[in-house]
Predict the structure.
Amino acid sequence: MSFLSVLLFQRVYQTLNKVRSTPERFLNVSGTSCAVVEFITVIMSNFGDESDSEVDRIMMDRPPSSYGSMQSDDHEDELDEFEEPPLKLQATRVRLNRPDSPETVFTERTNTNQSSVYKDGLVLRTQTFMRAEESHALHSINREPSIVEPSELQSDIQTEAAMDEEPNYRDEENNERDAQEQRNESAAMEQEEATKEEEEEDFDEIVVSYAEPIDPPPPPREGDGLQFQHLHGSLTLQHVLRQMVGCLSQFHPAEISYFKRSLSTHCRFRKNYPSIADLHDPLDLVDKMIEVCGLGEALHLTIRAIHNVGKEDLSVYLRKTCRRAVLQHDLILAHERRYYSLYEGRCRPGRQRYISDVYVEPVTVIRGSREPINLENEVQRVPYTIEETQIRAADIFRPLPHEQKPIRTVMMTGVPASGLTVAVNKVIIDWLEKKTNQDFQLVFPLPAKELHLGKDEHQSFLEMLSCFFAEAEDIKFIEKPDCLSLFIIDALELCRHDLDFKNNKVISSARVKAPLDALLTSLIKGTLLPNARVWITSHVSAAHRIPPQLIDRYVELRGFTDEKKEEYFTKRTSETELGRKVYNHMKRSKALEIMCHHPLFSWMVAFIFERGFRDPEYGKHPPGITAFYSQFIVVQMNRAFEKYRGCSVEAQKWKEEDKTFIEMMGKMSYKMLLDGRDRFTVADLAAVNLTYEDLRDRDELTTEVKRRNENVQTWIFKFVHFTVQEYMAAMYAYVAFRKDGKNVIEPSKMSWLTGSNKDRPVIELYRPAVDRALASPNGHLDMFLRFLVGLVTPGTEDNLRGYLLNHYHPKAKGTEEVAKYINKKMRDGVHPDRRRNLELCLVELEEGKEER
């Protein structure tokens, strides 16, 4: 190689070193990508044709095995002093390209058989992009050599001093781009934090956008409840189906087969597995699952099967996107187990009935100024009338046509045995069966009797809710305005919390920890979950614990009308003819027909008559009423023990104070009957050595009818029906005669020889009773006499043994004389109404015989 060639390469290396140190100085503003090649060409043109040919020969004929390591064929040692280390450019986005060479290795960037080098020669590229045609035309190494004029050279190549004086537009662009990138990064971080907060706010729910229906739904019919809105988008079939299909679409065929095999372990697919065995399309598979199981259960099975396949992330995603549908399904399963069956009377194993088979909706009215007691009376001929606005139990949250404000809190009251709890159960069953109140996405029954069983320490409302419903753990979306929920506080009279609305702390978030009493008061006030609805059931006496300004509507259960009674007796039995027989037989007694407006009393009558008609001879005589009232008193007292004491054997035992309570209530009833009163106060209780607390803990026989103020001495009470008061008076007179030897009707005629009291004939009690009843001008003692006569029969007296009489108490003597005396009085000239009552007394004697 000639000396000029060596000198040429030395100048090239020097130039490349300058490029390596300050490459931007050799790049013009237009972003020419091959300025170095142009510069080399200009230098070579200054050395003449010989140098050009030499350079061309070296650069075109010798393959460059490595940059900066070209060797001479003749003199290997001449270039040692000119050898420099390989050129390494700094990170300035400058990329060197060279032609293919047999010695070029494959890079790690491409794991294919494609070379990592370019075919356009040695190129120095900048950040500025050009069209490929222009770049190839201007800077191709294979183009013909061109002569560069000095003026062109001066225009293209500037001195270092001039470039130092030139404004650095590159730095300004870099600074501006860095500032923009920082702003973008900060905006991205803020968006990420907002998204994270939103996810934390939604917690267990991923919100998926969906199209809202434009047209409003048709107005609901009467009895459909709140159904003024379209179904929430996350609960629709379209949304759930789309999410299920979307998750299953990510499965491989083998995973689909394993998914179907996992479904085969479920009871619904053990026999129906062939129906899904040949389905491979996710849409067909999901559609078949919904057809077999229903929407909620199909979603539950899909989440479980996806988890079994091993797709935990998909399982969690599907659960979160359909969180409300999953929770609603879990609540439905829990409500079915608890409210599907109904225990009539008291809870006894094996005696439960499906609620829809026996339930007949009682009359529900918006409460007015009238007392809740049914004033219908057989003797006084007071008809049963309803003066208030009637409403269906499912429609209690529906505003009336003239009401604009939504109904948030409803208080439902009623006398004992009117069916408050059963009405709640029926509304829940209708909701989960998709019949009524579908605007409610979630329904949470909170029995007041169980509220004290939760945690004692402070807890949030969500934590309290998860204590009663494990399915409802961490459901923060319940605070959203689009989540309409219903909370039912049943039997407020059993709530042990103070419900201090004046002093309790106001809670506005379901995640703030507070005492349970403060959570309940805030829920009722509306500061906690203001978009929810609250339904409270209570006896009238306990309803005053809630300030009236917090209640939007008071409703009241009034029991059965005549049409409802017939529907109940025919519906509760599978034999329609037997139901009609029971109903017609019940109507033969006006007293039973009146008292059957109580649903519990109707159950007792139906229970006894259905078994009585198994005997073909049954039903020839009109039914007696005394035995039903005796059973009614016992059942109601046992229900009170169960509510306030518990269900254990010890709790259900009658204590001496319970027996004393019944006797003293009978004594007070007898005094009220003689005075012509049907109301009593706390002062009347004190006159017979009873307190308000005694009455409150055994409130199944009485109800509060008026409260003027918070002074308990001004409160007024009544028995659930006037006939119950008359029976209690008769029972007191009979037990006092049989147990203690006292004749409360004629005390002066009673012998005080203790030994002969139990053996004394009962005619001594009944003779003055019949005379006084016949002497009554308005018949106010007619029902008292009928009950008194009915108690003397062996079949009826047995209902009192073990409670008010000892099990081995001697049987009554002289019952035949009682019948003779009544027949004798009937032959005398008496008032027709009194005569009719004596005939009914004989019916009581006949029905209460031991052999019947």
